[in-house]
Description:
The complex is a heterodimer. Chain A is mainly alpha-helical. Chain A has two domains: about 1-160 and about 235-390, ABC transporter involved in vitamin B12 uptake, BtuC, CATH 1.10.3470; about 165-235. Chain A is built from 15 helices and two strands. By secondary structure, chain B is of the alpha/beta class. Chain B folds into three domains: about 5-240, Rossmann fold, CATH 3.40.50.300; about 250-340 and about 425-515, Rossmann fold (3-Layer(aba) Sandwich), CATH 3.40.50; about 355-425, no CATH class. Chain B has a six-stranded mixed β-sheet with strand order 6-9-10-3-11-12, sandwiched between helices. In chain B, strands 18-21-22-15-23-24 form a six-stranded mixed β-sheet, with helices on both faces. A four-stranded antiparallel β-sheet of chain B has the order 2-1-4-5, with helices on one face. In chain B, strand 23 (about 475-480) and strand 24 form a beta hairpin. The interface between A and B is medium-sized, with 30 and 39 residues.
Amino acid sequence: MGNVTAFFKNNIRQYGMVLALVFIMALFQVLTGGILFRPMNITNLVLQNSYVLILGVGMLLCIVTGNVDLSVGSVVAFVGAVAAVFMIDLHMPVVLGIILTLLVGLLVGSFHGYFIAYRKIPPFIVTLGGMLIFRGLTMVILKGQTKAPFAKSIQNIAAGYLPGDFKIAGLNAIAILAGLVLSAIFIAVQLNMRKRKKKYDFEVLPVGLEIVKIALVVLAINTLTLLLAAHNGIPLVLILLASLIFIYTFITQKTISGRHIYALGGNEKAARLSGVKTHRVMFWVYANMGLLAAVAGLVVAGRLNAATPKAGTNFELDAIAACYIGGASASGGVGTVLGTIVGGLVMGVLNNGMSIMGVSVDWQQAIKGMVLLAAVCFDVYTKSKNSSR
Amino acid sequence: MAETLLEMKDITKDFSGVRALENVSLSVVNHEIHALVGENGAGKSTLMNILSGVYPHGSYDGEILLDGKECRFRDIRESEQLGIVIIHQELALIPYLSIAENIFLGNEQAHNGIINWDDTVTLSKELLKKVGLNENPYTQISNLGVGKQQLVEIAKALSKNVKLLILDEPTAALNDEESCKLLELLVDLKAHGVTSILISHKLNEVTRVADAITILRDGKVIETVANSDNEIDEDRLIRSMVGREILDRFPSRATTPGEEILRVEGLTVFDPMNESRAIVNNVSFNLRRGEVVGFAGLMGAGRTEIAMSIFGKTYGVNHSGRVFKNGVEIRNNSVGDSIANGIAYVTEDRKKYGLVLIDDIRNNVTLPSLEKLSKFGVVDESQENLISNEYRKKLNIKCSGIDQRVESLSGGNQQKVVLGKWIMSDPDVLILDEPTRGIDVGAKYEIYTIINKLASEGKAILMISSEMPELLGMCDRIYVITDGEIAGELPRAQATQESIMKCIMSHKRTIQSVLAV
């Protein structure tokens, strides 16, 4: 058993937050008297947190470069307002409206990216400016009022479910099937990865632990899909989120662009002298953030079924917190998409659990702040321990 | 006279199971320069960190006696109070503060918390005079060269009434002239009652100024030799340091230079901070296949600037001049262009410009070559692992695996990673800027061997180095650079330290510039 404990000591950073998430979930399951894991609540958890997670994915890239984007909350509201103009005032078809809205998001991101990458203005300042600019423009466009309602299909992005009515023992068949298929894919990918790692003498988990790990993840996937199946099935926004997670994990881990972002964050000068076009990378990271803010903005608009001037307030802070709790480093070069998702879920479960328990909003804020601080302290502590080894 | 100032007895220090020092005893006599030599990782820095209180009492075994009294330092402050001051390799000056402010940083000349600037400046002037630095105390540190900064550090140490001055690789970043000055200053300080411990890889300096030399290897003291008459020679030290004979410090190579591969004509580049000042002035030179060509010159002569200007214009503004490869003029506007044209540049500062320290060996080595290792922008990881492993073996990088982070590697191995990264990009022209700075004798030899191998494969190597023996031992031709100009070209047969210095001096005279860096 000695090598197992040694393994945990060495990898506590990697798995620490996942364990913390499991712990927090179990804690609130008890504290809320079993409400947390009710099918309806789990579905709600997904719907409530989807946009912060979407923003977190984009924010992670900014944070890996060693910076942040403070404007995303305002951009979410701005994009919602623009979408309302396109689709409610101008009666554009939904697909065209969505495409144009996403383009607007990309443009907003490029606006930031231009000043950051090519005018050399620090991202903190540029996006602080963007935060004020786009909040202001939102009010201008909406004239301080709320625009509603959106078409049914926009609402569905945020609140709809995968269609299909086959039920097995009262459970949604598609959801259950999806769980099984995902489990199979996960197992295959893990085994393949393990084989490859062994081939190159990389560190691998002991066999027993690997099996436990795979079993736990499979259990988690199927629990989630079962719970969703017991409610209304798979929310559409979960599919959107899952595809984004997949795409961005792929980009960050497998592509040249991903490598360049991490190299830039780790040491910008060395990256530039290695042929990385650092300006271009920086530009696209922020342009991409704008695009994802637009996606999140549409989800928020759909969920509220309205564009409001106050939409998205403080979202940037939630997204940043998700990244840091998920193990990203404030000095850049470190962080993963999956970590950010775990970090975002930690915040989400805290929110949800405390709301169910009837904890007041003021206390919720304070507690979330402390969790952020504790998570980063833990991260710094394990890092310093690792480096003194 | 020969009283013992410092006595370190049976010092043993472990780093989580790894023994860094084992029963090390060191005794330093009053008013001497005591040199500490050994390969990287021999334990020199660890020993000095124990002495200066960086590793507090209790984290090691053994005892320290200063003037016969036992010392138990808990931190650097306590050791400084007793007059032990350490100057680290990486200087600890604040670039945007003045010389005077830096000298008295943490030791401000103040009454009731209010700084007395008159005292600060007057005292600074005195200290600067002592160290022979002719600068205004109000000058900002960032406007000084490394050599002068080093002197400010020493002035700072003197302000703390230093009794025992520890210098960790003080001349690593200095040119010969500056090094000379610094060493003279140490001798001068010795006469004024300051004892110093000098850590250095430059054995010629050690044998010149040290009164006693202690050699460390693998955490143990091999021997302490007296050198009061400077009778110890370098080979004797090297034998002791590495524990084996190094017959030849430079591996031999049969030279058969081929056709010209790179030609630079009339390169002129201006200072990005001051666009009217030409840093590189009308420089023309060429490289042939299978040839190792050296750039000799003093620090600040513009050698690095020339190299970086050729490498995708990564230095300077308003470039003019032409670069030809195989007789054809090439585009040279970005690092990407240079890599595509088969030109690679290995930086002089691997930590700052060469490596992503928090990343692993594999990702560092493949960074410039990712295009070749991928399809449609997706990196082929199997291929990448395979090829990184190949380079790890080829360059003999000592590590637990290619997934080890480079920050935990020793200097020599880090240098091999940087070299590997550029060799992998398969260049025809490889520019090496100070390729052996701050690495030990054994690793140096390995790097020389790699350089020779590359040359024999038909690559052209341009080597910039501040260590003249290295240039003389490795190069087929040497260009002498002064003030951003080429002062002369010496074939191997004519190149000696004297001829190079002569070349520099006479060129300086012809352009009537003042001898100052």
